[in-house]
Amino acid sequence: MAIDLGAPINTVFFLAIVYYVQRIIFPSTSQPSQTPSEFKKSYSWMPASHPPTLLFQRYTAKTLAPFDGRDGRRILLAIKGTVFDVTAGRSFYGPDGPYGNFAGRDASRGMAKQSFDLDMLTPIDQPLDKLDDLTPSEIGNMDGWIEHFSNKYIICGELVESTD
Asked: How many CB atoms lie within 10 A of CB 156?
C-alpha cells in the first residue's frame, strides 16, 4: 500500500509524523533562561541548590518555636507528638497564612477542634497538652490531619516534654 503524498492532507500528516519522531529521537537540550520554580512541561532542569538535609530530631515546645517561618526560616508544626516540616506550604503555614498561628507550635488541639483560635495553642512554657478531654470525633479530625500531613510533608521529628 503506497501513500499518495500528492494529496495535501497526507503531506501534512507525513510532515507532522516526521517532526514528532525527530523530537523524540533528538530532544531539545537547550537550558532555560531562568531556573523554573515549578513543574510545567518536563523535568529537564536542575534546581539551583538542593534543599538542606533534614535530620530526625526531638523538639520541645521551646526548641520548636523558632521554626515559625519568619525571616524565611523553615516552618515546622507538631500534631500529636509528630513534627512536620511544612515549609513547602509556606502560603498556608507561613506568618501570613491562614494556619500561620500553628507554625512553630503544637497544633494538635487546634487541628482536632478545627479552630484557628490562639487559645487552642498551649503556651510554650507550659507542659504539653495531653488532649485528654477531646471527643472521639475530635480525635478523628486530628488523626485525619496527621494522615494528610504524613502524605504531603516530611516528618522531621517528634515533640517531647521539656526536661527543664
From this structure: 19
- Per the rule left: phi > 0, alpha: psi between -120 and 50, beta: everything else, 83 is beta
Distances, alpha carbon 148 to alpha carbons 46, 47, 56, in Å: 28, 27, 19
- Residue 86: which residues within 8 A CB-CB, separation 6 or more? 75, 76, 77, 92, 93, 103, 149, 153
Report the 10 Å Cβ neighbour count for 59: 21
Statement: the pTM of the whole predicted model exceeds 0.70: no
Q: Which of 105, 27, 19 is nearest to 69 (CA)?
A: 105
Q: What are 99-120's pLDDT values in tens digits?
A: 999 999 999 999 999 998 888 9
Give dist(CA 69, CA 103) in Å, integer: 7
Distance CA 103, CA 90 (A): 10
Residue ranges with strand state E in 30-153: 57-59, 76-79, 82-85
